[in-house]
């Protein structure tokens, strides 16, 4: 009997929102950030998260523009390749080439839970902020939060 001691460490995904404001602008911007293992994935003062693309990545393999520009067009932020999402038996693998090369492996169950619970919390927070923050704009666009 051969013993396989290979252990795959799983990464942890988390969604969190933040409100950005800038000195030269009287608007506030509601931005969803992605954290992996407690570290922010990229600079979300420049990039944005497409919740539609992220939600779609739960279902099947493919290339997803989860990271995009604040305007919603990935190419505007120099992103010409989406995140390659590959589903295996009990894992979901991300291969990222832009904005920086990275690779992550998530438990399928934890991946789905993090996304669904994250989106639920974002929607709840958005309802609160819409009533308390003047001139709130949603990044990349509003329709992604009204599913």
Quaternary form: single chain
Helix run count: 2
> Can you tell me the residue ranges where pLDDT is under 50 for at least 5 consecutive residues?
none
**What would you call the structural class?**
alpha+beta
- Gross morphology: globular
Approximate strand percentage: 25-35%
Order of helices and strands: EEEEHEEEEEHE
Report the C-alpha radius of gyration, rounded.
Answer: 16 Å
Distance between the termini: 51 Å
Give an account of the 3D structure.
The protein has 147 residues and is an alpha+beta fold. 21% of the residues lie in helices and 34% in strands. It has helices spanning 51-56, 108-132, and strands at 13-21, 28-36, 39-40, 47-49, 62-64, 67-69, 83-87, 91-96, 102-107, 136-139. The strands form three sheets. Strands 1, 2, 3 and 10 form a four-stranded mixed sheet that branches. Strands 5-7-8-9 form a four-stranded antiparallel sheet. The longest helix is centred in the C-terminal third of the chain and has 25 residues, at 108-132. The N and C termini lie far apart (51 Å).
Summarize, please:
With 147 residues, the chain is an alpha+beta fold. It is built from 2 helices and 10 strands.
Descriptors:
147 residues; 10 strands; 21% helix; 4-stranded mixed sheet; single chain; 2 helices; 4-stranded antiparallel sheet; alpha+beta
List the helices and strands and how they pair.
Layout (H helix, E strand, L loop, with lengths): L12 E9 L6 E9 L2 E2 L6 E3 L1 H6 L5 E3 L2 E3 L13 E5 L3 E6 L5 E6 H25 L3 E4 L8
Parallel strand pairs: 2-10
Antiparallel strand pairs: 1-2, 2-3, 4-6, 5-7, 7-8, 8-9
């Amino acid at each position: 009997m051969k013993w396989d001691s290979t252990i795959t460490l799983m990464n942890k995904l988390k969604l969190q929102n933040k409100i950005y404001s800038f000195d030269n602008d009287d608007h506030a911007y509601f931005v969803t950030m992605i954290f992996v293992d407690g570290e922010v994935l990229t600079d979300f003062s420049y990039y944005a998260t497409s919740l539609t693309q992220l939600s779609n990545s739960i279902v099947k393999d493919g290339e997803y523009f989860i990271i995009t520009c604040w305007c919603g067009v990935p190419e505007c932020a120099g992103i010409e390749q989406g995140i390659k999402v590959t589903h295996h038996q009990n894992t979901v693998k991300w291969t990222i080439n832009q904005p920086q090369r990275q690779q992550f492996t998530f438990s399928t169950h934890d991946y789905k839970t993090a996304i669904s619970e994250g989106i639920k919390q974002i929607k709840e927070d958005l309802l609160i902020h819409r009533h308390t923050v003047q001139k709130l704009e949603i990044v990349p666009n509003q329709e992604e939060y009204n599913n």
